[in-house]
């Protein structure tokens, strides 16, 4: 019987059980397949030697693993931020970023967060974002999102480290690709698949309100981040031209409902841009807007892009944060990671396109680290 073809990474464990049944295989093969893909991190079934050779060949043809090709990487000297430009089978290019952090207070395990893309390009058009300037190409499929995480899981393995968190903050608007994003979340957090804790996953949205409502009702414990970037509608619509009128208030209301229904505290992302949204008056207006919520503000000094916007001076960033805290708003300033490697989303791909020819796979890391 033909079980049909497609990527294995698309399947939830229950669907793997079903495929195994359709292939006429004993039920325990499902566990072997899931372990081969998500524990062993095999790049092809050929590597999973617990399976008979003829089955490995059949699976490679009918249910392949298909990891994307690494076209280019950029890394900080300490390899605490590594960015990969990945190419899928149809030639689509996306960026995925790994951010590594030491153990908290010197205890426990080092943490490793993978920032995945959910679309090639993006239709939201945020004026300060390299991806936004590229326009929309296509939605990624769930298996392509899962494969990005596995790419860095393989990268970390020689260091004895694991992916501890996944954030949906790369190229694209995750909630505009809702079904595929959710399927990827369910595979990444399924104990029989990648097995990440739901609380270790964060979805970031620029404001698909219906998507936030739907996500709140999924019975998941994933974190939500809303990309606010401005304390009022007029400024927000300058920065996020596709935002609907009234989006600021409606986003805050949707975040409050998400908090009520899931118990998870919501984060508001605020990209600080010099002379645009970084004044003390903006901080005051933002504090007023968020008063009475427990939304946590994450201030992100802009990674400069070609659009000509600039990052505020560190003293101005600190003053903004201090002003928010004085007015009772919890906030953190995102640690600068990867500015020197074009770590803002879309930049590596834009840089590659600018150099006209996409180079063949390059490993920029010392070989001892791979
Ligand atoms: S910031 Fe995010 S939502 Fe806005 S254009 Fe860039 S990728 Fe899209």
Structure description:
It is a single chain. With 370 residues, the protein is an alpha/beta fold. The protein folds into two domains: 8-62, Orthogonal Bundle (DNA polymerase, domain 1), CATH 1.10.150; 69-369, Aldolase class I (TIM Barrel, Alpha-Beta Barrel), CATH 3.20.20.70. 34% of the residues lie in helices and 17% in strands. The protein has twelve helices and twelve strands. It has helices at 13-22, 28-38, 53-62, 130-134, 142-156, 178-189, 209-216, 233-239, 247-262, 280-290, 314-326, 347-354, and strands at residues 69-75, 81-87, 93-101, 111-115, 119-121, 136-139, 165-168, 201-205, 223-227, 267-272, 296-301, 331-333. The protein has a ten-stranded mixed sheet, with helices on both faces. It has a two-stranded antiparallel ribbon with strand order 5-6. Strand 2 and strand 3 (93-101) form a beta hairpin. The longest helix has 16 residues, at 247-262. The model is unreliable at 354-370 (pLDDT under 50).
